[in-house]
Design brief:
25% of the residues lie in helices and 27% in strands. The protein is built from twelve helices and 17 strands. The chain has helices spanning 43-49, 99-102, 153-156, 162-172, 188-199, 214-220, 231-236, 255-258, 282-285, 299-312, 326-335, 347-350, and strands at 2-9, 18-25, 31-41, 66-73, 85-88, 91-93, 114-115, 136-140, 145-146, 180-184, 203-208, 224-227, 241-246, 261-269, 290-293, 318-322, 341-345. The longest helix is centred in the last third of the chain and has 14 residues, at 299-312.
Amino acid sequence: MAITTKAYGAISEKEPLKPLDIKRREVGENDVKLEISFCGVCHSDIHTVRNEWGGSKYPVVPGHEIIGRISKVGQNVKNFKEGDLVGVGCMVDSCQECEQCKKDLEQLCDKGATFTYNSEDKYLKGERTYGGYATQIVVDKEFILRIPENIEAAAAAPLLCAGITTWSPLKHWNVKKGDKVGVIGLGGLGHMGVKFANALGANVVMITTSPSKAEDAKKLGAHEVLISNDEAEMKKHKNSFDFILNTIPVGHRMDPYIALLKYDATMVLVGAIEPLDPFHGGGLIRGRKRISGSLIGGIKETQKMLDFCGAHNIVSDIEMIDIKDINEAYDRVVKGDVKYRFVIDMASLKE
C-alpha cells in the first residue's frame, strides 16, 4: 500500500521545481514516519535535479537534510516514539549484511546504499526514493537520527550532510588539539569544517582565494586566513599543515595545496566529484604525503557528530526560505550567494 504526499520536485532536467504528489509506503513494523519541519538545500540536490552527474530519474524530489517530529512508529520500533525530534540524512537503507555495513559504514555498502532520493525504492515496486522537499517521509528505524533538543532544529538540518561530510574525515584522520588544520573553501562544507576543527582544538587556517571572506572565517572559528593566490603567503606556510580538508566543489589545481602539507600528512577531498587538473607526483613522493577522499559517514558516526553538536552548541549558519523560492535559491547556490546553507521551512509547502 502507498500513501500520497505533497512534495516539490522536477519532472525533467530542463524544468524548474514545482508542486508534485508522490507516493510513500505505509508504516511497516520497522519503520518510522515523520512530519518534515525543515529540509536543507545541498548542492547535490541541484546536480541531481539538473542531471549534471548523469543518472537522474524523473520525477526527482531532492532533499537529504531532513528534520521533523515522529508521527507514527512501527511495532518493532523501541528507541523512538511519537513526538521525538529526529533527522534523516543522505541514506534511508543499505544491505546491513556486508563487511562495510557491519563496520557501521553503510554509505560504502557493497550492494550500494539506498540514498534518500533518486535510488530504486525497495518497497514500492517501480518507484524511486523521494527526498525531503515533502510534507512527510517513512524510513527504516536504523536510519533515523536523534536530534539534540537544545540546538536550533532548522540550523541542525545541514548537519545531516554538510556536517557529517566534514566531521567524518576530521575524526578518521584523528585531528586533535594543537594540529595545524587547513580548510580550503568557505561554503556550506567549509564553514562546518572550520567550526568542527576549532571545537576539536586545532589551529584552524581558512584557505581561500577571497580576501573578503577573512572576517567571516574568523567569526566562524578560523585562527588565521591564507589567501591561496598570494604566492608569498603560500610559501610561508609550505610543508606546515598536519591535515587539509579540501571542500572545493569543482576541478582545480592541486599542486599548491599539496605543497602545504607536512611529510606524512593528508589532504582529504570532500567537494569535487569530477576530474581534477593533473598534478605532479613529486609533490607527494618527496614528502610521503597523501591525498584521500571521504563520503559522508555511517549512521553511528553521524549520531556521534550530532551528539557532539549538542554538547558544543554547534549548528550551521543558515538562511531560511519558503518552498516557493527554491528555484531562485538554486541559482543563488550556484553563484555562491548564501551564507552558508539554505534551509526550507516545510510548513510553507503545507500552506
